[in-house]
Write a structure and sequence with these properties.
Blueprint lengths: L2 H15 L9 E3 L8 E3 L2 H8 L3 H11 L4 E7 L3 E6 L1 H9 L17 E5 L16 H13 L3 E5 L7 H13 L22 H17 L1 H16 L2 H24 L10 H4 L3 H10 L3 E4 L2 E4 L13 E5 L6 H16 L3 E7 L3 H14 L7 E7 L2 E2 L16 H12 L9 H21 L7 E2 L2 H4 L7 H17 L13 H11 L1 H11 L3 H20 L8 H25 L8
Parallel strand pairs: 5-6, 5-10, 10-11, 12-13
Antiparallel strand pairs: 1-2, 2-4, 3-4, 7-8, 8-9
């Protein structure tokens, strides 16, 4: 249990023992630190409830406090100011030097959570918005820190019209391929007729033609229907496209340290689609409307019309809503999770509201299963508009990675060369991208300023990694056998200790609110405080042995804490930079 929570429980018990009834007491960070580190603000509430003078109530509480507090005083009508005794701080934080868990207030019951993030569309190049896979990855790591079991699924978009468009364009390019011969009975080629580089050109061209040529668009839809129905040649070509496109996307996700337990796609849910529709129909929840099987999910309390779920066309084609319902059915059967969470663009919120209503209304999932959509904002360029390339096209994720790498690499020391330089530049590129992406509140749109985010100062991933590198270098050069802080020799040390007592609240807020901005802000504050301490104190040459021992142990504590926090964000350290 964290120090602040254990102290709040102590205060709650103390106040109840005085004859007052409270369920909880908050130890608030003081806005006037000259009077104390924290405030206890219950006296006024208790005075009103029990008809007493607030200052009298405050005096009773103060008189009962034990020696875990110093500088205890009462200000105004009954604001109790307290400072934690240094010995209490040291006892708590010394235990954290080798045990990050002291900062984690784990829930009593662990959950199993399926996390859906990534969501790349097969045959299309990853665009800058796919960088936000970082959010799902960081939340996965955070849930694991809190003891939850996670199952992450990239959930490929491999079963829709975009691939039908690609097949239609391939037929335009290579009309004599055996895949398009309905009478062909032999084995289909083992190699794809197109490369991944060609797919990067084919889809944009096909997408443009679809908007200009209605007949072309209808033919693409027909190909979509054919591979979904399992027409041999078209299904074989579909498989080539998927197998050609996926490795390139996987390589980008891997570069960004985004890991997935499952590499499922929409196609994996297809075997569950008809059973899902039968399940809904057997409950009398479906009806035909304009040639489409639908399910109403509107409620009387809705302030605006809620569109129905679109399940199946009269020609037998399964629609997108059914695919998502079938995916949830598959996940419930395979994992029976406590929660299924989606990390997708905020603009998808209506679709997921419809889907979740359909699940709960039909009993496809029980009410106890936590279905949540955690939307995120967009990444914009310096002009505040969606990020574009110089020629006005959509910025690819690879393009953004290269842009950052080209800014980072020249800043590395000239003495670092060869493969080592390349590896360090790659890790700093990832640190830059991740920290900048995880720093804003999840739903916030943000501007990606490459000069700002590749700086060695300020709220950047580079600054955080630089601080970790400084700590690692320091600890490698001095005797750090000491694993215990013995005193609080100055304000710089105290400031770091107090900051570390705030970490459990930071982690709990990130965990409960499913957003990483708290962690990024904490990392910056901790790095700033440590670098100030480092500049003001000569750690290696400190003459007083007890003070030197404290400095070394403090450095070890900060390093281990920072290392764990960076790992939650998916940021790797470097030995030099």
């Amino acid at each position: 249990m964290s120090l602040i929570i254990s102290t709040e429980k102590y205060l709650c018990e103390l106040i109840n023992n005085l004859g007052y009834q409270v369920d909880s007491v908050k130890l608030e960070k003081s806005k006037l630190p000259e009077f104390g580190q924290y405030q206890i603000n219950v006296a006024m509430m208790l005075a009103k409830k029990y008809g007493e003078n607030p200052r009298s109530v405050a005096e009773k509480i103060v008189a009962a406090l034990d020696d875990r507090f110093t500088n205890v005083n009462i200000q105004g009508p009954g604001f109790i100011n307290v400072t934690l005794n240094n010995s209490v701080l040291l006892d708590y934080l010394n235990a954290g030097i080798a045990n990050f868990d002291i900062f984690v207030d784990k829930p009593e019951k662990a959950r199993t959570v399926v996390l859906d993030y990534g969501g790349a569309n097969i045959a299309k190049e990853l665009h800058v918005g796919h960088l936000r896979c970082n959010i799902g990855e960081a939340i996965r790591r955070l849930l694991n820190v809190f003891g939850d079991k996670t199952i992450s699924d990239v959930h490929w978009g491999d079963w829709g019209t975009p691939i039908g468009l690609v097949i239609r364009e391939i037929k335009e390019m290579y009309p004599d391929l055996v895949y398009f011969d309905p009478d062909y009975k032999g084995e289909y080629p083992s190699d794809s007729p197109v490369t991944n580089e060609e797919l990067g050109v084919i889809y944009p061209r096909a997408s443009k033609r679809k908007k200009e040529d209605e007949k072309y668009a209808e033919e693409a839809k027909a190909f979509t229907d054919q591979f979904q129905r399992g027409v041999p040649g078209i299904k074989a070509l579909w498989r080539h496209i998927v197998d050609t496109s996926k490795p390139d996307c996987e390589a980008v996700y891997d570069f960004l340290n985004c890991k997935f337990d499952l590499s499922y796609g929409e196609s994996d849910a297809d075997p569950y689609a008809e059973d899902t529709i039968k399940f809904l129909s057997d409950k009398g929840l479906t009806e035909m409307s304009d040639g489409i099987l639908i399910m109403h999910v509107g409620e009387e309390t809705d302030n605006k019309e809620m569109p129905p779920l679109l399940l199946k066309k009269s020609n037998g084609s399964i629609l997108y809503d059914t695919t998502d319902l079938a995916t949830i059915k598959q996940r419930m059967e395979d994992f029976n999770p406590d929660a299924i969470w989606y990390f997708v663009d905020e603009r998808q919120s209506l679709h997921f509201e419809q889907t979740f209503r359909g699940c709960y209304k039909s009993g496809l999932t029980p009410e106890t299963t936590d279905l949540k959509f955690y939307g995120f904002g967009t990444i914009n360029g310096p002009d505040g508009k969606p990020f574009k390339t110089r020629d006005g096209g959509v910025m690819s994720l690879k393009g953004l990675i290269k842009l950052v790498y080209d800014h980072i690499e020249p800043k590395i020391k000239d003495s670092i060369t060869g493969e080592e330089r390349v590896e360090i530049a790659k890790k700093l590129t990832v640190a830059t991208l991740k920290y900048s992406d995880l720093l804003p509140y999840r739903k916030t749109d943000y501007i990606f300023d490459v000069d700002k985010f590749t700086s060695f100062e300020g709220k950047t991933g580079v600054y955080a990694v630089y601080t970790a590198t400084r700590l690692k270098s320091l600890l490698s050069k001095i005797d750090h056998a000491s694993d215990k802080m013995l005193s609080v020799p100055n304000q710089d040390v105290l400031d770091i200790l107090i900051k570390l007592t705030e970490l459990p609240k930071c982690l709990t807020s990130a965990y409960n609110e499913v957003t990483t901005n708290y962690i990024c802000e904490f990392i910056y504050d901790l790095c700033s405080l440590y670098n100030k301490f480092y500049a003001n104190n000569n750690i290696g040459n400190e003459e007083d042995e007890d003070t030197k021992s404290t400095y070394i142990a403090l450095s070890k504590l900060v390093y281990n804490t920072l290392s764990n926090l960076l790992n939650i964000l998916g940021i790797e350290e470097v030995d030099k930079m």
